[in-house]
């Protein structure tokens, strides 16, 4: 059985390809840029994208199972084409922001994807990770240039997850039975404050990395200057503020499904020390 991985150039999708290959699965990868994806030998490549539904019929031909990257704008058309192609099973990447009403929340797009896949009647599984450890690569510039982490809400407590753990769960769900209709909320194994994350980066670099706390207004202006839409900047800041009152708690789902510990932030920091100047 060949599994179609959509978004195979993406941060998670590319890792899903590797995880499936490690499990002995046959993989067809849908990517807009095979060269950039640097896909391993043995992977069947189809050039295309969920954003261009006209490329999907070729990618879906002869497939029964799909890893679906989130693409709300075209998900309804994907579902129509997938149903026509005889797709039976869809494992869709979603997110814990579902249900948030803020206009800048990513939850609206994730909800649209889940709703469309459910309505289409596929044997489906939804993966809802929270924040990514990779998000803190946004600190890399200030660590390299000034030796500090600069952000708001230093005491916000988060359960960030490594992208590789998300991909490992996706591959496990794709190749093993027993996940029909499940929705898995994924987190990292620890709840850490942003100050503690800065300390972990310092430990990985072998030197202290002080935490410089920005005001909400300062952080908002920095993000907008970096190209974040104003409403998205507000949504992110509201999320950090919420965890001051209600710290995130690890779900334990990664460990339960994979039978191994999830990647800690300290381990991630060591693996990514080069990005911070190590």
List key phrases describing it.
single chain, about 280 residues, alpha/beta, Rossmann fold, 2 domains, seven-stranded parallel beta sheet, two-stranded parallel sheet, 12 helices, 11 strands, about 15% strand
Task: Describe this structure as you would to a colleague.
With 278 residues, the protein is an alpha/beta fold. The protein has 2 domains: 2-129, Rossmann fold; 132-161 and 187-249 and 261-278, 3-Layer(aba) Sandwich (Rossmann fold). The chain has 12 helices and 11 strands. The chain has helices spanning 13-22, 34-37, 56-60, 75-85, 107-120, 140-146, 163-175, 194-205, 216-225, 230-245, 253-258, 265-271, and strands at 2-5, 26-31, 44-47, 65-68, 89-93, 123-129, 149-152, 157-158, 183-186, 192-193, 211-214. The strands form 3 sheets. It has a 7-stranded parallel beta sheet with strand order 3-2-1-4-5-6-9, with helices on both faces. A two-stranded parallel sheet has the order 7-11. Helix 4 runs parallel beside helix 5 (107-120) and helix 9 packs antiparallel against helix 10 (230-245). It is globular. The N and C termini lie far apart (42 Å). The mean pLDDT is 96.
């Amino acid at each position: 059985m060949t599994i179609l991985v959509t978004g195979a150039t993406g941060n998670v999708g590319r890792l899903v390809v590797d995880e499936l290959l490690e499990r002995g699965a046959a993989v067809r990868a849908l990517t807009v840029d095979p060269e950039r994806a640097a896909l391993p030998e043995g992977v069947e490549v189809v050039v295309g994208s969920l954003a261009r539904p006209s490329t999907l019929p070729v990618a879906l031909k002869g497939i029964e199972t799909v890893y679906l990257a989130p693409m709300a704008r075209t998900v309804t058309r994907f579902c129509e084409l997938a149903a026509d192609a005889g797709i039976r099973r869809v494992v869709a990447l979603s997110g814990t922001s579902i249900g948030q009403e803020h206009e800048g929340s990513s939850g609206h797009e994730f909800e649209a994807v889940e709703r469309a896949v459910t309505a289409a009647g596929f044997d489906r599984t939804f993966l809802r990770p929270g924040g990514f450890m990779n998000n803190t690569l946004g600190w890399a510039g200030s660590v390299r240039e000034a030796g500090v982490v600069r952000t708001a809400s230093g005491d916000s407590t988060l359960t960030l997850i490594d992208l590789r753990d998300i991909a490992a769960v996706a591959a496990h769900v794709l190749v093993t039975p027993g996940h029909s209709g499940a929705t898995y909320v994924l987190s990292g194994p620890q709840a850490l404050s942003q100050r503690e994350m800065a300390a972990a980066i310092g430990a990985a670099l072998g030197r202290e990395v002080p935490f410089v706390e920005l005001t909400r207004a300062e952080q908002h202006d920095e993000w907008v200057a970096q190209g974040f839409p104003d409403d998205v900047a507000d949504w992110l800041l509201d999320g950090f503020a919420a965890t001051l009152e209600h710290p995130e708690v690890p779900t334990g789902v990664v460990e339960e499904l994979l039978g191994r510990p999830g990647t800690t932030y300290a381990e991630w920091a060591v693996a990514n020390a080069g990005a911070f100047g190590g």
